[in-house]
Design goal:
Blueprint (H helix, E strand, L loop, with lengths): L2 H8 L5 H7 L7 H7 L5 H13 L8 H11 L6 H52 L21 H5 L32 H12 L1 E7 L11 E8 L6 E7 L8 E6 L6 E7 L8 H20 L6 H8 L7 E4 L6 E5 L6 H6 L42 H16 L2 H15 L5 H12 L18
Parallel strand pairs: 1-7
Antiparallel strand pairs: 1-5, 2-3, 3-4, 4-5, 6-7
Helix pairs in contact: 2-4, 2-6, 6-13, 8-9, 9-10, 9-12, 9-13
The structure holds a DNA duplex (16 and 16 nucleotides).
Length: 454
DNA sequence: CGCGTTTGACCGGCGC
DNA sequence: GCGCCGGTCAAACGCG
């Protein structure tokens, strides 16, 4: 959505723009605001452009006004100069105050926009599901509903035909996962096909400080390859989920080239089986992030803006990149606050979905794995020595994200898009939790600590 | 002996 | 068309 239209749509007092551009000593978000209030929005600024001149001694000034005031000052007497400087400084001070107020208003507008965006997304996805219902029906018998969202459900939905090896080798597998024909059955709606195609490619990258070779995210992984990636002296390891026979989920683990204490884990795909609670958090986060990417694939969507919109409280740790090859959500857990505080807080009161769009299953303890999060250091930059601690870190971080009401809205949208009207997820959820309670203790990742060679 | 890792080879996509 | 590079395969190997 165009920002100008957004402001108009939200009824923002557009006359603020000109003032905003006058000065922004704040800095970090300056580019956004300048762009926001650029002169390109003439139709929104033209009304106000005369006002600063009419009240040149008032609060509202812009760059031109400053220039006009400063240049004549050079010709003034030496005695008047300090006076004007003092006035200017006073004005600057007032402008700074106003700038802060405007920032607050901008934050409010952004919040409103987020809500609207999420609502729109939800409506769109609901509409899609009315067009193409029940693509998950084929999956449901295989893996009970409570598992994570089937964003990458195509392999799962085809698991009846794609028996056994999930290989994608051209020499051994004719049913390539990436083939559009495999994305959905003939009953599937075209728009959803496209959505799933994009979501299948979506990845979620988690950056976390860890001395361990991999982060324990609650799933079982089997290493199937290792490569030296260009531009990084550290090898990249490839893991495949082995909790189910044909689970399509893969992950890549690589240390950051700049800071080798940072472990970058990239998840791709969606599990087609029940997950341990410990894995649920990450998987759900992954799925929701993929859903966000879906929404970001809408035309003219600004992904960075989208990232801030979807994860407003996590903007410092979550970024969305649509740059090739795959759209990727990066969750940066290497930064402590502000999310560290959220991550370290007791995980029990996880605010989940707002009632209207919340599928029943997510009002259950879908993220019960987060309850394992006991490490007070979760989300901080302190390296955690054990895999369990890392699991806590990841889970707690995921809790921090999912606890964000805006994120849960996005999550609701994701669930709505995937599950649609399908409702009896709760039973499976409880089954799922029963199934995996024990596995959550063994942290279920690959036991081989030598898998990550340097 | 079974399971998981290692590692060189292979394949496909992409840029030039 | 060619080469680079990411991703995957599969035989070899190690470990319990």
């Amino acid at each position: 959505m165009d920002k100008g239209h957004l402001l108009a749509f939200l009824g923002l007092p557009l006359h603020l723009h000109g003032r905003m551009s006058a000065d922004d000593p704040g800095g970090s978000r300056r580019s956004v605001e300048v762009d926001f209030f650029s002169d390109d929005n003439k139709q929104t600024c033209v009304v106000e452009r005369d006002e600063p001149r009419a009240a040149s001694s008032g609060l509202a000034i812009n760059k031109e006004d400053l220039t006009i005031n400063l240049l004549p000052a050079a010709t003034h007497d030496e005695e008047t100069k300090p006076k004007e400087e003092v006035e200017l400084q006073a004005e600057l001070g007032r402008m700074n105050e106003e700038n802060h107020r405007l920032r607050g208003m901008l934050a409010q507008v952004t919040t409103s926009y987020q809500a609207l965006q999420m609502h729109l997304l939800t409506l769109m996805q609901q509409a899609q599901h009315q067009q193409a219902p029940a693509p998950l029906a084929a999956v449901a018998p295989i893996a009970p509903p409570p598992r994570q969202l089937q964003l990458d459900q195509q392999p799962a939905s085809n698991s009846s035909t794609e028996v056994g090896s999930p290989r994608r080798s051209s020499s051994t597998a004719n049913n390539k996962e990436d083939s559009p024909e495999a994305t959905g059955g003939p009953a599937e709606g075209r728009p959803q096909q496209l959505d799933q195609a994009s979501m299948r490619k979506a990845r979620v990258s988690v950056r976390a400080r860890s001395e361990a070779p991999i982060i324990a995210d609650g799933c079982q992984w089997r290493k199937y390859g290792q490569k030296m990636a260009k531009g990084n002296p550290c090898p990249r390891a490839y893991y495949r989920c082995t909790m189910a026979n044909a689970c399509p989920v893969r992950k890549q683990v690589q240390r950051c080239a700049d800071d080798r204490s940072i472990l970058i884990t990239t998840y791709e795909g969606t599990h087609n089986h029940p997950l341990p609670p410990a894995a649920m958090a990450m998987a759900s986060t992954t799925s929701a992030a993929a859903s966000m990417l879906l929404s970001g694939s809408m035309p003219s969507a600004d992904n960075s803006f989208l990232a801030r919109a979807v994860l407003p409280c996590s903007s410092s740790m979550a970024t969305i990149s649509a740059s090739a090859p795959f759209p990727t959500v990066t969750l940066d857990l290497t930064h402590g606050p502000p999310t560290a505080a959220a991550a370290a807080r007791p995980p029990a009161p996880l605010p989940l979905l707002p009632p209207p769009q919340a599928p029943p299953l997510y009002n259950q303890s879908k993220f019960s794995g987060l309850h394992m999060s006991s490490s007070p250091d979760a989300g901080t930059t302190t390296p955690l020595p054990t895999g369990i601690g890392l699991a806590d870190t990841v889970s707690a971080a995921a809790a921090a994200i999912t606890a964000d009401p805006n994120f849960t809205v996005a999550l609701a949208a994701a669930i709505t898009s995937i599950i649609g009207g399908g409702g009896q997820q709760q039973h499976g959820s409880s089954n799922n939790n029963n199934n995996v309670t024990s596995s959550s203790n063994n942290t279920a990742t690959s036991n081989n600590t030598n898998s990550e060679t340097q």
